[in-house]
Specification:
alpha+beta
């Protein structure tokens, strides 16, 4: 019997795709759910799996062909024995995995967030046969937008790793199995490969990222509990981040296993200098970094992006903050920062210039009567933009508390997709790194982004007199397809007025 393989649903508003590559040829045997071809759309790339076991009898849509949802891709002739080849490796590995005579608990890819269906296995924090405790991180997953840790659902021994580092896994796919009754080894089963590696290559990652340079909050908490100097722990996360697993490995004497080099291609262009570091290293981009790069470039290619500038005298905000910051922190439990003033000032300006809070969707303009402000945050894994929702209804303290909460989750790599999607406008603060002036890139599909910069004392003229004031340059990048120059300038002037006279924010003027 011939089974037809059709183009699956491709997502909201996506109606066609291009056949990228056939993973099987006519006459090949296929197993149920085995990938047989790849489809590419303008938003995602996805694999099409076999719906039955058998033989691929006909390929209808060749590579490079454009196909619509529901179109016929191929036909499979059902037959026995086709599933055996795909199942054999798994069965072989299952026999080799330690079972300890107990029941095996499967670890699957967890929910990754709205519209995210696959991830890349970044790093295994545990090796096969190694002991794990319940809720202990055992591996790291990377998606297009977030990096997250997968924790052990039970205590026991890691019996089998089903998805190796670098593998692309779909939602619900099997990552590993844990023997809930086995004890497991104390630590470094992975130490042998690390020891066999050439000395310069093994030491390069540690030298490139100084120990303790970046520490996840969960790692710092465990280090504090165990009395460990976290600066002595070598980080194995992206960019040398010290993870909770690194601290636990250090505590058990298994740091060598924790810092075994990740599967990164390192190409040395010339012999290492006497200091030990190679002249060049080739490090593949993470999935998150690739997505950031693509989204920023797409924004430049799609929007008619333009930037307008102004400057704001921060004297009034600084004075107000200095006057009330201690009382504010004592009452609300959070510091009174500058960001809440900027969020409030932007909400007031967005109400007056609604097109900056809108977006273009196909041939229509979508005006939004809610104000979910994205606050860009730099993390060891890359730039993320968590969203503070309902800013028009939040007080200064509520905004500060939410920014602090989201910032902590961003640094720990625990932001969910819901916390990063749906923003209507973005604020980016390059001033914390010392930036004096820049032109931020739009966070598509939004139509505006405000760039904050460093506060510098400068000489300005007031009433014919030269005075020194703490000044900040502001930059508004906007989509000129929807926002005219007048609207952009008006928006920035309103933000300036609100900050130079913050009482306007209280009185809703």
């Amino acid at each position: 019997m011939a089974i037809e393989i059709q183009v699956p649903a491709l997502g909201e508003s996506v109606t066609e795709a291009t056949v990228g590559k056939w993973l099987k040829s006519v006459g090949d045997t296929v197993a149920v759910d085995e990938p047989i071809c790849e489809l590419e759309t303008d938003k995602v790339a996805l694999e099409v799996n076999a719906t039955a076991a058998g033989t691929l009898s006909e390929i209808v849509a060749e590579e490079g062909a454009n196909v619509e949802v529901g179109a016929l891709l191929a036909k499979i002739t059902e037959g026995e024995g086709a599933a055996a080849p795909a199942a054999a490796p798994a069965a072989e590995k299952a026999e080799a995995a330690p079972t300890g005579g107990g029941s095996l608990v499967e670890v699957h890819v967890p929910a990754l967030g709205e519209s995210v269906t696959e991830a890349t296995v970044g790093k295994w924090l545990k090796a096969e046969g190694e002991a794990v405790t319940q809720d202990e991180p055992i591996c790291e997953l990377e998606t297009d937008k977030v990096a997250l840790e997968v924790n052990a659902p039970v205590s026991g021994a890691l019996a089998r790793i089903a998805a190796p580092e670098g593998a692309t896994v779909e939602l619900g796919a099997l990552l590993a199995t844990i023997d809930g009754t086995a004890q497991g080894t104390a630590a470094p089963k992975a130490a042998a490969p690390a020891a066999a590696a050439p000395a310069p290559a093994a030491t390069a990652p540690a030298a490139a990222a100084p120990a303790g340079a970046n520490v996840r909050a969960s790692a710092a908490e465990v280090a504090k509990e165990k009395g460990i100097d976290v600066s002595k722990v070598k980080g194995s996360g992206a960019g040398g981040v010290v993870t909770k697993a690194d601290v636990l490995a250090y505590a058990s004497g298994g740091q060598a296993a924790a810092v075994a080099p990740a599967p990164v291609a390192a190409a040395v262009a010339a012999p290492a200098e006497e200091g030990g570091l190679p002249r060049e290293e080739v490090v593949p981009m993470t999935r998150l970094r690739r997505t950031i790069a693509k989204r920023l470039k797409d924004a430049q290619n799609t929007a008619a992006m333009l930037t307008t500038y102004n400057e704001v005298d921060m004297s009034a905000v600084i004075a107000l903050r200095n006057q009330y910051k201690e009382i504010f922190e004592k009452k609300h439990g959070s510091r009174l920062g500058f960001m809440s003033f900027f969020v409030k000032a932007c909400v007031q300006a967005l109400k007056e210039v609604p097109e900056v809070n809108a977006e273009i969707r196909e041939d229509a303009v979508i005006y939004k009567n809610y104000y979910d402000i994205g606050v860009a945050a730099s993390t060891p894994a890359g730039l993320v933009v968590p969203v503070v929702r309902g800013c028009e209804n939040r007080s200064f303290s509520e905004i500060e508390n939410e920014i602090a909460r989201l910032g902590k989750r961003a640094r720990d790599g625990k932001l969910s997709m819901d916390e990063m999607t749906g923003g209507t406008f973005t604020i980016s603060n390059g001033g914390i790194f010392g930036s004096l002036m820049s032109s931020p890139i739009l966070n598509a599909p939004q139509s505006g982004i405000l760039g904050m910069h460093a506060i510098k004392e400068r000489a300005v003229v007031e009433n014919g007199q030269i005075v020194v004031r703490p000044m900040m340059y502001l930059a508004l990048s906007y989509d000129h397809r929807i926002v005219d120059g007048k609207g952009a300038v008006t928006f920035l002037v309103r933000v300036k007025e609100n900050l130079e006279d913050p009482q306007r924010l209280i009185l809703d003027l």
